[in-house]
Amino acid sequence: MSVAGISRGSVTAEPSALRRRRRRNTERVRSVLFHACVVAVLAVVLYPALWMLMSSLKPTADIVGNVSLWPEGASLDNFAKALQGIGGVSFWTFFLNSMILAVASVVGIALSASVSAYAFARIQFAGRSVWFALMIGSLLLPIHVVIIPQYIIFNNLGLVNTFVPLLLGKFLAAEAFFVFLMVQFMRNLPRELDEAARIDGAGHVRIFISIMLPLMKPALVTCSIFAFIWSWNDFLGPLLYLKDPSLYSLPIALRLFVDQTSTSDYGAQMAMAVLALIPVLLFFLIFQRYLVEGVATQGLKG
Amino acid sequence: MALTEKMTDPGVRSTARSPAAKRRRAAKRRRAAETRAGYAFLTPWLLGFVLLTAGPMLASLYLSFTNYNLFAAPKWVGLDNFQLLFHDPRFLQSAKVTVTYVLLGTPVKLISALAVAMLLNNSHRGKGLYRSSFYAPSLIGASVSIAIVWKAMFIDRGIVDQVGQFFGLGAGGWVGNPNMTMPMFILLTVWQFGAPMVIFLAGLKQVPADLYEAASVDGAGSVRKFLSITLPMLSPVLFFNLLLETIHAFQIFASAFIISGGTGGPAGSTLFYTLYLYQRGFVDFRMGYAAAMAWVLVVVVGIITLLFFKTSKFWVHYSGEAK
Fold it and tell me: Which residues of B touch A82 (CB under 8 A)?
């Protein structure tokens, strides 16, 4: 590796080998710099999440004001307390309620959005462009303009304190984002497929079920993941419609928990916060490709 | 359609049995069948749109001209609610808080998103993992869990307080200090820069590399390249992000509710627009008033959207073929 060793080598190969090595070195330095920069930013960004996770293992007295991530005297006591639930309702009841709402949302959105999107993407019918424009317009509409009359209607129908107000919209494709995403996806599928099927005498129902649905799997998966996570994290809907603690979904149970324990028990609060996020984090770990690609191509929100 | 047919071909009736007429009639029948099929497939969305969006919108427009408390019949009061709004100090406070949040939080969030996207836009290994990791906060940032964590971090004697004191800032948490709650919420939204970052990254990938090469040959520095190539090429994506993030920011609710315990305190410093709307509608049961607030929000968001589209031709560049 000495300089003498290099200079004794072949005269013609020497300069280019040196240059190559130097280039490789600068590349390596640049790569180290890049990773150092990104990891530094990432450490700051992920710190709150890690702090939450680690705090959930610490004794309450050791949480507030403790910058350190390392849980001294780590234990699962906080989780035991969180799992007991609130006011005689077990944590698992809230968990089950959240799960029912999220799974039903996924089913509702996958069904209603795909059927409606097929009409927009593949059927030429009178008035289509008007409805399409209205659908796009509703993408940007603040939901607050509809929640008051919706509440009044559901209240008059005696449906407050049931899951119906939270799920009806999912089965009626009220979240236009999903319809829009599926329309965009379907438009990129080759038209030759369904034209060939039409010539063979297949109707729209046949084409939709046996040609479109199988091809739409990626869009259906993306929509399902987001439908699940949005339902799981939803706060305003359950806050308005669920009054009986045994019907609470996790976010409002969490809020009740915080109100009741006030500032005294941060450990249990952190543990319950962590438990409430576990399904979302699992989805993230398993489907991160779909999630990130979905955001990149469709501009979906988190 | 029927009118033009008659005009171009006055002999339709007399030559009803001609092959051309038969074809026309078959086409018409097919079109009618398509329309029937179209509406059949559209039914779920159409029902949802009429029952859950358009109908309630009209209903809340009507309610905004009434006093309604959910128990007695709505009482028509004309423009009273709207006049009251603009003399209601808490409404004005909520508008101020929300506009401040939108105007400060959204640009900082998007600048962070663009900066990290440019940092990640290269061929180093591990990029996908980094991208996903930065995106993660966007998924959970608006949840109740994170609001609880945020509050615990920024509370009196909390970790932010400790670190702040180390750097010579005054003691006392941000949660209870009306001057510091806004920075706390801005940090919370900036923390979720991952979603716009992913969109920026997708946009950066579309910028042709030969543009940069040509600029290098011409001796352009990196600042020049950023201003003359990256920004214009990225402007459609920037437009999309800016519009969506702005509209989104107006509607912040769960975090404000949790961190302030539903009150909007201290001193109204976290009284975001939707929080005040919720208080009016569902705590005080002044639903007409809340409906008026909702319509003001719709009009404001509508005007902003319109401004975005109207001004887009001055700052959004679409290269190549039209989309």
Answer: none
Instruction: Give contacts of B44 with chain A, Cβ < 8 Å.
Output: 111-112, 115-116, 171-173
What whole-number distance in Å separates Cα of residue A236 and Cα of residue A166?
10
- CATH domain A80-298 topology: MetI-like fold (1.10.3720)
Q: Is the pLDDT of residue A9 over 70?
A: no
Is B161 a member of any domain? Answer: yes
Cα maximum dimension of chain B: 96
CATH of the domain at B146: 1.10.3720.10
A241 in Cβ contact with A166 (< 8 Å): yes
**Contact call for B135 and A153, based on CB within 8 A:** no
Closest CB to A255: pick one of B51, B144, B282: B144
Q: Nearest-CA distance from A90 to chain B in Å?
A: 18
Structurally, how many domains does chain B consist of? 2
Q: Given CB atoms, is A277 within the 8 Å cutoff of chain B?
A: yes
Coil vs helix vs strand at B67: strand
- Please report the beta strands in A41-146, taking only residues with DSSP state E, as ranges in sequence order: none
> Do both B28 and B140 map to the same domain?
no
CB-based contact, B157 to chain A, within 8 Å: yes
B interface mutation test: which of A45, A241, A270 has the most B CBs within 10 A?
A45
Q: Residue B149: closest CA among chain A residues belongs to which residue?
A: A52
CA dihedral A281, A283, A284, A288 (to 10 degrees): 170
> Tens digit of pLDDT for each residue in B83-96?
999 999 999 999 99
Are the C-beta atoms of A34 and B124 separated by less than 8 Å? yes
Substitution target in A172, A289, A291 with the highest count of B β-carbons within 10 Å is A172
Our CA-based measurement puts residue B168 at a distance from the nearest CA of chain A, in whole angstroms, of 16
Residues A231-283: tens digit of each pLDDT:
999 999 999 999 999 999 999 999 998 887 655 688 888 999 999 999 999 98
Rounded Cα gap, residues A124 and A138, in angstroms:
22
Q: Which among B103, B114, B95, B149 is positioned nearest to B249, based on CA atoms?
A: B103
Q: Please list, in sequence order, all residues whose beta carbon lies within 8 angstroms of the beta carbon of residue A39, skipping any fewer than 6 positions away.
A: none
Q: Which residues of B touch A119 (CB under 8 A)?
A: 37-42, 45
Does a structural domain hold residue B102?
yes
Place of tokens 């959207």: B305
B198 and B163 belong to one structural domain: yes
Mean pLDDT of chain A: 88
- DSSP code string of B163-175: HHHHTTPPSS-ST
Q: How is chain A split into domains, by residue range?
A: 3-55, 80-298
Structure tokens at A105: 């949302």
Give the pTM: 0.88
